[in-house]
Amino acid sequence: MHPAGLAAAGTPRQPSKRRVPVSQPGMADPHQLFDDTSSAQSRGYGAQRAPGGLGYPTASASPQSAFLGDPVSNMAMAYGSSLAAQGKELVDKNIDRFIPVTKLKYYFAVDTMYVGKKLGLLFFPYLHQDWEVQYQQDTPVAPRFDVNAPDLYIPAMAFITYVLVAGLALGTQDRFSPDLLGLQASSALAWLTLEVLAILLSLYLVTVNTDLTTIDLVAFLGYKYVGMIGGVLMGLLFGKIGYYLVLGWCCVSIFVFMIRTLRLKILAEAAAEGIPVRGARNQLRMYLTMAVAAAQPLLMYWLTFHLVR
């Protein structure tokens, strides 16, 4: 046997050393079926983290900032804001022309003390002495500072309460229906509108130069709903006797209230103009004042007598 063969048979066989290629950092393992991209993504993802630490990549420039940085867009925004301001001013002017919002704010400038005093004045006008409306620099003070100033809060609340009380009265008599309640409310509004138009026409025909406005008339004529509520409630509690007693008292009270209030608005202007007390025009003004005051009790009875049985 060959000595080389004996030597090969006598010595143990050393394992063959194969050179494994070292993978570079940017190269994938040749034995892998798919490339491992998790490390590269994690490195890229971590490198682009937002300053807040939320893990989102930061954008170089947002669309909003790019839009605002454009001078053409800035001019468009300025032009749009100016158009919006002009439109708002135009709407405000038109609203004030048809609906005097600033004037309405004056008639609703009331507080709890004023409401209490005004209600007492409506039920007991005989104890009141000074009926002059207070002025401050040729402008009447707010109603909360002067109990003689007209307001729209009490007439509005009284009208709503009157409609509710009318519904209660109709319900206790098994006559309630939405149509009948709507007819009751619309009738009250129609009579109020007719009153205002008739008084304005009469003032025009008599040629009365007065500071009595249409809103003042609505306020003064709306005070009668307070007495109507009291009459209907007493009628529900005590029958027709309570209704006639309370309504009669309220009718006399509203008559006195209207006489003492309107005479300062109508007759005082005549005295300021130098018209004689016994003159024909002054007598017409007196008749007009008494007619307006006398119409209040009649309407109070007409709008409530069918609610009490």
TrEMBL record:
The chain crosses the membrane at residues 152-171, 183-205, 217-237, 243-263, 284-303. It is a multi-pass membrane protein. The keyword Cytoplasm does not apply. The keyword Transmembrane applies. GO terms for cellular component: COPII-coated ER to Golgi transport vesicle; endoplasmic reticulum membrane; endoplasmic reticulum-Golgi intermediate compartment; Golgi membrane. It is found in: Endoplasmic reticulum membrane; Golgi apparatus membrane. Keywords: Endoplasmic reticulum, Golgi apparatus, Membrane, Protein transport, Transmembrane, Transmembrane helix, Transport. GO terms for biological process: endoplasmic reticulum to Golgi vesicle-mediated transport; protein transport. Its main location: endoplasmic reticulum. InterPro entries: Yif1_fam. It comes from the Eukaryota. Residues 1-56 are annotated as: Disordered. Has a role in transport between endoplasmic reticulum and Golgi. Belongs to the YIF1 family. PANTHER family: PROTEIN YIF1B, YIP1 INTERACTING FACTOR HOMOLOG YIF1 PROTEIN. This is Protein YIF1. The lineage of its organism: Eukaryota, Metazoa, Chordata, Craniata, Vertebrata.
